[in-house]
Amino acid sequence: MIFTNQLLFAFGLFISLAINADASFANQVDQLWFSNVGFNGYYDIVEHVAGNEKCECYIMDDHHYFEGSNAPLNEPLSVHFRGPLSLHKFAFYTSDAFYADSGSSSQSSTIVQQSTQLSAPTNNQQKIKRSSKDSSSWSRVAYYDHSDSSSASNVTFMNREGDKSKCLGNAISYADSTGLKKADSATILEKDNYIASDEEFIIFSNVSCPNSSVYDTCGVYREGIPAYEGFYGDVKMFLFEFEAPTESQSNSSSFESYDMPAIWVLNSKIPRQSQYPTNSNCSCWASGCGEFDIFEVINGSTNGEFYSTFHTFQGVDSVSVGLSQSAYFKRDTNGTMTGGVIFDSDGNTVSFMSDSLTFDESISASDMLKIIQGNEDDESSTTLSSVSVTYTATSITGTTSSFKNEVAILINNKLSALASFFIVLFNIL
């Protein structure tokens, strides 16, 4: 009888630990922290884009090389929105230096500085102490407020209502005030804007691109589009005030992303080339030029949850799957949400929700650090694997597998420990 009770206790302990191991990776938070973001790598250079019947898109034999903190997302980015969603405010900021983990209790103030040789997969690491005094204030570079269209600066609203192509999908075009239709010139989004499921609009800067060329800043882009540059900066921050109400239309097979709102950033070359091509050579996306989903509902069964996901080749073999955390932000379908993402000086990417945000022309480093530190008790974090590639390689692989595999490894380790527990238990009995 004692033997039976001991077995039951051991079995109950096994089940409890297994459940807790799984549940601990699925929780609601106000902050998602990714550290060690950025690696040395490359992606394909699109040399020719043509939306004809043959879908003639070509890439160069050479590659575009990138390196450093936040790479490749340290390149210019466009900002994308998918409904159901209403945008109240948008702001883009840059800083000379910002260290998100300065003075933090949950993120160690001892950070790791990496010096990586382009041709060798080795990192020389040196620990440096960071102080909040090392961080600089944030300067607003672009702004939109739905309540005052005259205050908009350095923003160009686009959508995909341009020329149609079976190969390239719809080209980008100026968006009208609703965000839904094509306009003849740049137009500011109206106050009562709303996009439904599957509908999208994009924000670029108001800086026109030079001519389409592999040698110019915007690269090669689709013929006939209004081409604008994305938002520059190694150290940058995007802030949003928005609503994501429940979709009012009934679901049907015509929807691809029913009731799945999202806000994300792309390497701005992607929408200028083709956001949804049938030929992967028509865009740099498939070769890993960069996407980060800030707030995204990823499937219909969890449409009350926003996730953050990297779509680069840092530590994963599939850019489509990407790397995310299973922790999520709650989607408020009845109110206004404020949040954003910071790409800091040390390769920390922090997406967050906060009611304390302001959209002022300048935001002090201390104010942003207070917001980040105020979310520490409601935070999930993960570290991306260190990656360096030799540029003669034909593919980019990381030193570790995806975060999902890391979770599986952790659970397996716990199961191994439980197996050892059973062995000890039976030896005692």
TrEMBL record:
GO terms for molecular function: glucan endo-1,3-beta-D-glucosidase activity. Residues 31-95 form the Cell wall protein YJL171C/Tos1 N-terminal domain. Residues 136-368 form the Cell wall protein YJL171C/Tos1 C-terminal domain. Its EC number is 3.2.1.39. Residues 110-119 have a biased composition (Low complexity). Keywords: Cell wall biogenesis/degradation, Glycosidase, Hydrolase, Signal. Residues 1-23 form the signal peptide. Coiled coil: none annotated. It catalyses: Hydrolysis of (1->3)-beta-D-glucosidic linkages in (1->3)-beta-D-glucans. Pfam families: YJL171C_Tos1_C, YJL171C_Tos1_N. GO terms for biological process: cell wall organization. Residues 110-134 are annotated as: Disordered. It comes from the Eukaryota. InterPro entries: YJL171C/Tos1_C, YJL171C/Tos1_N. Belongs to the PGA52 family. This is glucan endo-1,3-beta-D-glucosidase. It comes from Hanseniaspora guilliermondii. The lineage of its organism: Eukaryota, Fungi, Dikarya, Ascomycota, Saccharomycotina.
